[in-house]
Known about the structure:
By secondary structure, the protein is mainly α. The protein has a single domain, classed as Orthogonal Bundle (Bovine Mitochondrial F1-ATPase, ATP Synthase Beta Chain, Chain D, domain3). The protein has three helices and two strands, in the order E-E-H-H-H. It has a two-stranded antiparallel sheet. The longest helix is centred in the N-terminal third of the chain and has 16 residues, at 14-29.
Amino acid sequence: xxxxxxRGTLHPDGDDLTQFRSKTLTTFLYTHRPGVAxxxxxxxRACREVLDxxxxxxxxxxxxxxxxxxxxxxxxxxxxxxxxxSG
Length: 87
């Protein structure tokens, strides 16, 4: 147990971490709405970064209905972690 901290929560085991990152990717990739087109290379790079835990501190709502990772990070700065997508 490594006791990793992310998004203000302690997740003690890999299963929670895997589920967390899976949900983050699902939020990022599958909105079922038209949106911003992101190139394949950019999308794959963002997926790799999420799976590697680079963006574990980014609130999940920042991944929703955004473009590439730069847009995700900008959304995270605009909206505090305790607020949802609707504010």
